[in-house]
Amino acid sequence: MNILLIAIDTLRADHLGCYGYGRNTSPNMDAFAREAVQFDTAFATAIPTHPAFATINTGQYSVSHGVVSHGSSAPIPRNVPWLPAILQQNGYTTCAVDNLAEWRHGFGRGFEFYVDPTRRRALSINCDNRTLNRRAIPWLKQHAHEQFYLFVHYWDPHTPYLPPRAYRRLFYEGNPNQPDNHLLDAMDRHPLGQMWRETWFNKLGPHITDPEYIVALYDGEVRYCDEGVGQLLRALDETGRRDDTLIVILGDHGELMYRHGIFFDHHGLYDGNLHVPWLLRHPEVAPQRASGLAAHVDVAPTILELCGIEIPEAMEGTSWAKHLLGKGPAPDREFIVSQECTWQMKWSIRTRTHKFILAREEDFYGRPMRELYDLRSDPDELHNIAAAEPDLAADLERRLEDWIAERMQAAGLTVDPLVSHGLTLGSRWKEEGDVQGAPPMEVDQR
Ligand SMILES: [Zn+2]
After folding, report:
1. Which domains does the chain have, with CATH numbers?
2. Is the pTM of this model over 0.90?
3. Separation of 204 CA from ligand 1 center, angstroms?
4. Helices (H), 278-383
């Protein structure tokens, strides 16, 4: 069984048609989803990019593989299980069309071919899907007769959202410059917001005041990327290998737009960041919706089992393969634990009904150290009920701390890895905030 793993950076599940979005952002992925397994509730267990991809490749939680933040130079340990290396050992011809290995030692392990078209550009995340496809598609055609594993990592939905011109007004008809719109005022008091204006918004014309214009640009990037995915899928069909290839499409994390006072970035353990798309098509698996709580740790074990390869014991995720093949019940999880340690140092525990977020140190925004949301009545997580529901908050905090303590013990750690590691990008922010006297951003409740 060949494997094509398509990862789309910064892709919110709920901005895709197949996940219920109202805009036509994803006709190709929607068509794919109709022939595939769609995991309706799949979550990142560690954000953003580096922790997420370390988790996807190891099938381990970040406490175990040790990559708790983005932007650290610490290599990925060589003793963790690593999907591309396992596939290579099992006879696969492996290829990545990606740039993660450029940033962090260890991401390239197990790849015979590592093609990084982003090296042609000053800012690697500006490399679009067409540029990647120009490398990925010829490789696919050339190696289609071998047993292959091809990993393609698109970046289009990541900031800056500057899709080709034809996509910039696709989902927006308003006036992006209305002077009486103040929804972006808080962004302007923030170091990241100033950077957005200077490096990116300024390319879009006069002073932008409407964040919905920026959201529509993000959606334009998603649509543009979707067409690249369609191009790659058609190229696979043309090789004649469609019926013996497992195809996985997933996101590494989502994006927060502006409603949490976090502007166009992927920090904050809210569902906008944690809820990721995960689609999977396998010739022996009937199209279906999988509704149980799934997570990035499940991706590698599920791929391995569907390809008849033994799952290493050190992988901590659960394979969905038997369930998808109709040979077993759905994996049963009560909750999913996630963490971030890049811009802010937090843990979260998410059940089907609630999310509890625990900060290990105060964040830049001055938010409470404990947040609790009822996801049934408040899916956008805007009304913190930690004070109103102290018993529930305490119960979730205990389950979270127990889970962390258990994982730490298994990994031989005595200090919470977020605390011992420390913030990466966020440490610079704190310094800038002090220097410039920037006030904390107000949390916009709209
Ligand atoms: Zn990412």
Report:
1. 2-324 (3.40.720.10), 336-436 (3.30.1120.10)
2. yes
3. 24
4. 299-306, 321-324
